[in-house]
Amino acid sequence: MRKRYMGPILLTLPVSILSLTGPAIEVVVGPYDATQRTWVLPKALLSYHSFFFRAACEHDFKERLENRVTLPEDIPEIFGLFVQWMYSEDCDIIKHCNYEDGVYNGVRAWVLGDKLRVRGFKNFALRQLHKLLIPLDGNEPLCHIEPIEIRYAYNNTLPESELQRFFLLATAAYWDCGHDKIKYLIKSEDWEDLWEEHRDFRNDLLRNLLSSREVRLARLRRVMGDFEIENKDVRS
Question: What residues does the BTB domain cover (predicted)?
Answer without folding.
Answer: 43-93
